[in-house]
Every structure is written in C-alpha cells, then in structure tokens.
Amino acid sequence: MKPLAQENSHNHLPISMITGFLGSGKTTLLNQLLHQPEMQHTLVIVNEFGEIGIDHLLIKATTEEMMLLEGGCVCCSVRTDLVTTLEEAFHKRERQEIEFKQILVETTGLADPAPILRTLIDDPFITAHYRLETLVTTVDALYGEQQLDEYDESVKQAALAHHLILTKIDLVDVATLQALKQRLYRFNPTATLHEVNFKQDTLNAAKLFKTTHYNSQTEQLDIARWLNAETYIQHQQETHDDPDHAHDKHQPHRHDRYIKTFCIEHNEPLHWLTLERWIQQLTRLRGKDLLRVKGIAYTYETDLPVIIQGVQHVFQPPSTLDAWPSEARRSQIVFITRNIEKTVVERLLHTLIKSKTPIDVCQAALILIGQEHIQ
Fold first, then answer.
1. DSSP letters spanning 301-355
2. How far apart are CA 153 and CA 172, in angstroms?
3. What is the pLDDT of residue 99?
4. Which CA distances in Å does 76 have to 42, 80, 96, 102?
5. pLDDT means per 10 residues in the chain (375 residues)?
6. Whole-angstrom Cα Rg for the chain
7. How far is Cα of residue 230 from the mean position of the Cα atoms in its chain?
8. Do 314 and 291 contact (CB within 8 A), yes or no?
9. 92: CB partners within 8 A, 6+ apart
10. Which residues, including other chains, have CB under 8 Å from residue 326's CB and lie 6 or more apart?
11. What angle do CA 262, 265, 268 make, to 5 degrees?
12. What are the contacts of 144-148 at 24+ separation with CB within 8 A?
C-alpha cells in the first residue's frame, strides 16, 4: 500500500449545487439568494443568464461570460463544460480579476447530479483546488410525487441532497405534503427539509451553505457531521420495521423504490488489498448504480482513519485524518445506491475477507452479477 496523503481539503474552495426538477422553483430560489448579503464573495455558475433575470442586479459585465452583481456576488455562465469554467474562474481569482470564497452551481432541471459529483471528485485540477460542500434540491410539493414516479433524474436529485426545499406548499393540503415528506425520508433520511411558499417565505443562504463539514478549531473533517452514520443505521432499522416500506415493493412504477441507503460497519481492521478489491468489484460490475459512497476505514496498514469516497465508477485516492473521531475504531461506510441491497455489499466484503485465491475473488464477483437489477 502506498503512503496515504493527509486529508486537507479544508483549504480548498467549497462548491455547492442547486438542483431540482423543471418548474420546482430552483430559479426562484436562486433569485432570492442573489439578493442576500450572505452571498457576498460567491461565484454563481448558471446555465444561461436569461433564465434568472439578473439585469436589475447587474453592476458591470467583466467579460461576455461573467458579470458582477450588487452585493459582491459574481455570476458566470458555463463555458464548454463545468471543469473548464471552474479552471478559468480559479485562474481569474489567482490573477485578482475576480474575488470569491465559495461557488454555487445551478444545474438544469433534467440534470442527473451523479455525473456532476463524479466530475468534482475525479478531475485532478478540481480536487486540488475545490471541495464539494452542499447539494440543495428543490422539490415541487404539487407535482413531486408524480415526478418521483416518472423521472429517475428527479429521484437522484432528491436522494443525494443535503437540503430538500419543498416548494409550492400553499397549493397542497396537509395530507399530500406529509405523504411527500415521508416518501422523501424513506430514501434520504439525512437531508434537512425546508417547507417554503416563495410568495411569503425567504430562505437564508447561511442556513443552506454555511453548514461546513469541517471543524473550525482542528481544521479536520468532522466525521460525525460528514458521515452521519448513526442516522443511516437508525433508518435501516426503521425501514425494516415499516410496513409501508414493504408496500413500496408492490409499486414497480416508482423510481425511488430502487434507491437504497445504508451504512456498512466492520469492527475489525481490514487489509487495504481487501478494501481495494471490494471497491474494484463494486465499481466494475455495478458502478453506474453507486450514486454516492463515503466513509472511514479501519485498516491494518495505518493507525489513522482512512477516508473513502466515490461516485459511480470513480473514487478519490484515499487519504487519512489526523485522529479518530472517538475512541471506538471501526469502518463505517455509507452507500446511496440504485438497487444494490446492503446484504449484497456485506456478503461481497465478507467473501473477500476470507478469499485466498483469485478464484475466490471471482466467486465474490458472482454475488454482484447474480443480483437482479434494472437496466
């Protein structure tokens, strides 16, 4: 095993994302945020200027693609791709042409957030200078149930969010809103829910984007806050005992019934080679269904906790923290998947722990190949 780098992304520029299905109020939310003083020193990356109507906020256009808004917020449109836009923005900041301390990316309504997240952890330049902070998703209270039924992108947007903004709540009754909230909770138990009527409510940007995953004193990743493993473990028990969860299996039209969220725990140290093989098999055979993986690993090769995180086929190079978050040392890895059951992931790991030959590794792969899944 190569020496591991120390986790140091607290020095990197935070990137947050706003996503949400068509008509869910994403643009309205962005317009509200652009007026707030908390957005000072924020670079906002949008798809097209025309969609958000910023003319009344415009101070000057620094280039064709970049505009300075009142309040100190910089707004720019995506160039050829997000990576190019982020690279150019970083170099402009280095040359002191623009000033920003954080970035907010607005996605299209039909965007699948997983490939975007994958880009943010895969590109060498991006990982050297930026870090993913917060994902905010707007959900239409009136049409949310229908969109979750019909569109896989809508489900992924909600499943990966740190904050879920329920909009148009004035257009639905209490029972409809409660049913939607319960449905969202089933596949995203850790998201913070906000109920808003944009006609009279304003969401504070600080509540959405100032909840850093880093400890300000130690400048270390706050594992309890970042991983939130206990919530996933509690949720596993709740869904196991919930009769409505079983009822979902008889509604094949629901895209969200395929979303599985769980935490794998292992109390004994693991060989790094075992972990590598585990991740390799998962990504090789079911990579597109790994919407998000994050956690800490307890290994024989180091006394320090090893950070693991990935999206679909791409995993960041592992790094270590300075110390364990508590006296208890154990691996805790959270999975958000599309139709990969916890039992399958656990069986694969335990098979690889016991494996002694390449044939054993092939046998482990059959666990994934043999599991029924949708295309």
1. S-SSPEEEEEETTEEPPPEE-SS-SSS---EEEEEEEES--HHHHHHHHHHHHH-
2. 23
3. 87
4. 11, 13, 16, 13
5. 59 90 87 83 72 43 50 59 87 90 84 85 90 92 93 91 95 96 92 92 84 58 66 64 51 69 93 92 92 94 93 91 86 93 91 73 62 42
6. 21
7. 18
8. no
9. 66, 98
10. none
11. 165
12. 144/24, 144/180, 145/176, 145/179, 145/180, 145/183, 147/21, 147/24, 148/183, 148/254, 148/255, 148/256
Q: For residue 287, what pLDDT is reported?
A: 93
pLDDT at 256: 72
- 112 contacts: CB under 8 Å, gap ≥ 6: 152, 153, 156, 157
Cα–Cα distances in angstroms (integers) from residue 275 to residues 60, 245, 298, 308, in the given order: 52, 31, 10, 10
Matching residue, tokens 């850093």 = 212
Give the pairing type, strands 58-61 and 66-69. Answer: antiparallel
- What the chain holds in terms of domains, given with CATH numbers, is 5-209 (3.40.50.300), 242-369 (3.30.1220.10)
d(CA 275, CA 64): 48
The DSSP line for 115-159 is HHHHHHHH-HHHHHHEEEEEEEEEEETTTHHHHHHH-HHHHHHHH
| DSSP bridge partners of 333 | 264, 295
Nearest to 118 by CA among 312, 327, 261: 312
Tokens of 257: 């019934």
Name residue, tokens 């994403």.
26
CA–CA gap between residue 121 and residue 119 (Å, rounded): 6
The whole-number pLDDT of residue 45 equals 84
